Amino acid sequence: MSDYSNSDLTPGSCEPCGEFSQQMHLLVADELERPEQEAAEAHAQSCEVCGKFLSEYRELSRMIAAAGAEEPSSELLASCRRSLTDELDDLAAEANDSRSKVRRWLHAVFPITSLTVQPVAAGVLVFVGFAIGVLVPRWAGQPVPVVSVEEGPVTTVAENSLPAFNEQDLRAANITGINWESTASGDNPEVQVQLQAERPLTVQGTVANNNVKDTLLYILQNNRRCGPDVRIESVELLKPRSKDADVRRALCQVVRTDANAAVRLKALECLNGEGDEPQIVRQTLEAVLVADSNPGVRIEAINALRAMAVKNQVPLDPHLVKVLRERAESDPSTYIRLQSAALIQDLGPKLSY
Amino acid sequence: MGMSVALERDARDAAVKVSEESALVRKAQAGDRLAFEELVRKYDRDVLRLALNLVHRTEDARDIYQESFLKAYRNLPRFRFECSFYTWLYRIVTNVSLDHLRRRSSRREDQAPVTENFEGVAQDFFDRQPETRPAASPERKLLGDELGALIQSALEQLAPRERMVFELKHYQGLKLRAIGDMLGTSEETVKNSLFRATRKLRASLVAMR
Questions:
Q1: What's the total number of domains in chain B?
Q2: Nearest to A64 among B49, B151, B195 (CB)
Q3: What is the tens place of the pLDDT at every residue in A150-161?
Q4: In chain B, whose CA is at the least distance from the CA of A30?
Q5: For the whole prediction, is pTM greater than 0.90?
Q6: Residue A1 domain-assigned (yes or no)
Q7: Residues A136 and A159 both lie in one domain
Q8: Would the ipTM clear 0.95, i.e. be above it?
């Protein structure tokens, strides 16, 4: 332990001589280039005043280093991340609200303009859309895609269609339900997502279709807008594509932020397998282990971490080891305590719990 | 020869990292929330450590964390890649932290009542709460308690900007030029702040003996 009372710091302690004053400060702050550093050290050896200053200053640096910087705990970090995520969700929701308010205000102030301009604009858009839809594939030598519009007001965005809707449509819609039917092969079910909006929309196809995948991802990324049943179905349906980077990231977000433990568990189950971005998955599992209040979710997280360690996807990271030691000592669940200790041993024979 | 190959490889790795980060920032600027969250996760431990060491109160550090990242999120479209994202983010964090420190020093009377421990060192309400953090190991306690309290008390005497420079230099290990970039000032000014801070700190520690 550094004891400042034994240091050379005495009242009226000296200052370096004028010529080398700045150099001495910079020398201890490690801000000098090699030649300047050597010159300053040589001077300190020959000048008693500067030599004394240097030893005092080094003692001060040693004391500061011994006191050490305060390291934020994993719990604090996890809780800060959660609050930030909530704030960002609120910001996104506010932005949506203000956009629709502006639209309503414009309609109220300029009703005539809207009435006259909208049909013309709509006509032009339909014509341009039709032209692009028919001509571009012909030029490209591809078959014309099928965008089926059912009888009545419901539009169906079918498999293989061009992107007929975007995130804006999803934001404006309520997701009322997901239906799916198993196919003969059993691994790629036919999915139908119903969106209730000004113009109701059904997104239909297998999860191999990007429109379907994007809709399911949207549900996971905006998990406050849908019920837990819809979210859990979305996670389940995305399982065949859980190797895709964007799907893995969305699943990680679900694991960290979804309010429902069953949804988090299902997402963890989908992450448990081969895939890209093992680092993000590992960080997610680490955060869950520290911060999730549900013991079942924490158990799945430690199991998944052990599975990753078997595949050599868990590097010997001091922070992880610290988290594991903490869990091994203080987690209320015996299973987690044992598994954390076992994982420390898996990670390196030199580490002992 | 071997050294130059290693240096080249390091430079190449650094360039790849910079370009990956730029791509991530561009995605976040285009509204990709996940990209922004990835940037947050990359730097938030450092940000929280800086805040915690500056204010020494969990709740204040949490506020600085939250306010800094929300500011970064709102202002991200204005980031023009004129400096690294890290420097830009730290500029926000240091400004938010300085505001906090200034507000705190101008409202000392609003703070929790201060008491003294058996060694006569001032403690506030938060200091007196039982320590439950994992960082509070027995060694750290032994090493840090007395010395930490003395240094902490001496740091409290510094002006907010001097304290910030001292913290960034000694605990975050940044170079003076980088600190100048973050604080929007010259290296020379940062140097002077560091010298002043060090002198004051030495004087305070001597006076506390």
A1: 1
A2: B151
A3: 334 456 655 445
A4: B175
A5: no
A6: no
A7: no
A8: no
